Amino acid sequence: MIRCNGVHHLAVSTADIKAQIEFMSDVLGMELVALYWMHGVEGAWHGFMKLDDHSYLAFVQTPAIAKIERQLGVSHSGSPGAPSAGGTMQHLAFNVDTFEELLAYRDRIRSRGLTVIGPIHHGLCDSIYFAGPEDLSLEIATSERAIDGRAWIDPEVVALANISPAELARFRGPEPLSLSGGKLAQPAIDRSKPIMRGWPPGVYEHLSSLPDAELTERMSETEPPVKVEE
């Protein structure tokens, strides 16, 4: 079955990319594998911290980010249970494979002088909680086995979320994806559906109207900033 099988990268805005890199490297042991001018975004830096060969934590720094005020309950939750605006990152949880590794991370984090809450046993996972730079709300979690939807989908919450039995069946068994050749034409912009609203005026409309091959040719940048001799 073809499906998304992990998170390639989660991008977090930052006003201090060095501080984020320092924290993720020293406290969590992540390796910096990319730091370069972000493709197609004037004045932006992009950094990638390695989780594994196919999964990364990314940071984006632009001059404008430092001018945006962080507000708990608006832009940031401040804790794993607090609110923030719809579409913002409420908290970020990293995975480890065993409970012993979870405790090892707790020791490492505490050895850097940081407070850590947990472990807390949630049934579907065990978790520890701590803060990162710029009010990031962070978690490390481990699950002994894959989450079983038969046990963890609460009928009361399903009803309160206004999910019908037919919808629940569809959510539990989504339509499988098969190879299709990538030949489907771009639909016209439908503003009743989600669109990217942060582009400069007219740019999103222009890019979405380009033939796929032309957009790929014009927008792609594949050369790394440093030549590596094989």
Q: Could you write a compact summary of the structure shown?
A:
The chain is of the alpha/beta class.
Count of runs of 4 or more consecutive helical residues = 7
Q: Enter the CATH topology name of the domain at 7-68.
A: 2,3-Dihydroxybiphenyl 1,2-Dioxygenase, domain 1
Beta-strand percentage? 15-25%
Which strands sit side by side, in order, in the main sheet? 1-4-3-2
Mean pLDDT: 93
Low-confidence runs: none
CATH C-level category of the domain at 7-68 = Alpha Beta
Shape by Cα distribution: globular
- Our Rg estimate from Cα atoms comes to 21 Å
Structural classification: alpha/beta
Largest sheet: 4 strands, mixed
Which percent bin holds the helix content? Answer: 10-25%
Spell out the helices and strands N to C. Answer: EHEEEEHEEEHHHHH
CATH superfamily descriptor of the domain at 7-68: 2,3-Dihydroxybiphenyl 1,2-Dioxygenase, domain 1
- How many DSSP-defined strands? 8
Span between N and C termini? 36 Å
**CATH architecture type of the domain at 7-68:** Roll
